[in-house]
Design a protein that fits this description.
Helix content is 47%, strand content 16%. With 260 residues, the protein is an alpha/beta fold. It has a single domain, classed as TIM Barrel. The chain binds pyridoxine-5'-phosphate.
């Protein structure tokens, strides 16, 4: 299973001080040498971490293909068309969110979405849609003519964390419900089932399937057996671990866990 390392979190650290250290560019060779197959970055409308200069330099000098996440805002799409990454992953974006909290709404924005997809593809850029794992989203993605979908695993990851760790997950809507272990186990099974059935459907329709958000060194073991998923995009947990073990070890270890 391919590994995309999301290096936004290095820029998050840099922006905490608004200086030029740590530089996300320095991660490229380390990721490539330690088993990553792809670099993922998100050029947000508010440029809160990766900025235009980072994106340009990363795309120019990355030894690995760059998957550039972005919103469907027309100005951003034009920038992406100029940057020409290997792939663009269209994601929803809200200014107030801490991170991308759910999949794209494919239904209320379909015209703008279709325009974005067409423009990117006309510029030779492969397109992926970051979507919730539902059959409706898969079918709609197929209609939009994209090559890839990335299934949002945030809900699965949050339930896994509630069941197995004492981590707090502020974005989780079921946090307040005080569910029992058995109820959480059932929810985890259901969320995994949604990811599986969506992956199977996507593959049947000829779409390539990636997954990402909230994946880490523990919960990944439930995702890797899903053979229809060919790629995982992982950021937070890798960069968090690298604080203690170094980036090379953190990438090597997660790549080992991607093997099935
Ligand atoms: N994939 C997409 C489309 C994302 O937006 C993100 C979060 O930036 C990730 C993967 C990685 O998520 P995490 O940082 O939780 O591993």
């Amino acid at each position: 299973m391919n590994l995309g390392v999301n290096i936004d979190h290095i820029a998050v650290l840099r922006e905490a001080r608004r200086i030029n250290d740590p530089d996300p560019l320095m991660a490229l060779a380390i990721c490539a040498q330690n088993g990553a197959d792809q670099i993922t970055i998100h050029l947000r409308e508010d440029r809160r971490h990766i900025n235009d200069d980072d994106a340009l330099k990363i795309i120019k000098s990355s030894p690995l293909p760059v998957n550039l996440e972005c919103s469907i805002d027309e100005k951003i799409i034009d920038i992406i068309c100029d940057l020409k990454p290997f792939r663009a992953t269209l994601v929803p974006e809200k200014r107030e969110e801490v991170t991308t909290e759910g999949g794209l709404d494919l239904f209320s924005n379909s015209k703008r979405l279709k325009n974005a997809v067409n423009k990117l593809q006309a510029n030779g850029i492969e397109v992926s849609l970051f979507i919730d794992p539902t059959l409706k989203s898969i079918e709609e993605s197929k209609k939009l003519g994209v090559e890839f979908v990335e299934l949002h695993t945030g809900s699965f990851a949050n339930i896994f964390a509630m069941l197995n760790t004492s981590l707090s997950h502020s974005s989780h809507s079921i946090k307040e419900l005080e569910l029992s272990k058995d109820e959480l186990k059932k929810l985890l099974e259901q969320s995994l089932e949604h990811i599986k059935t969506s992956s199977i459907k996507a593959k049947e329709l000829g779409l390539n399937v990636a997954a990402g958000h909230g994946l880490n060194y523990q919960n990944i073991k439930l995702i890797t057996p899903i053979k229809e998923i060919c790629e995982l995009n992982i950021g937070q947990s890798i960069i968090a671990r690298s604080v203690f073990t170094g980036l090379a070890n953190a990438v090597k270890e997660i790549k080992e866990l991607c093997k099935r």
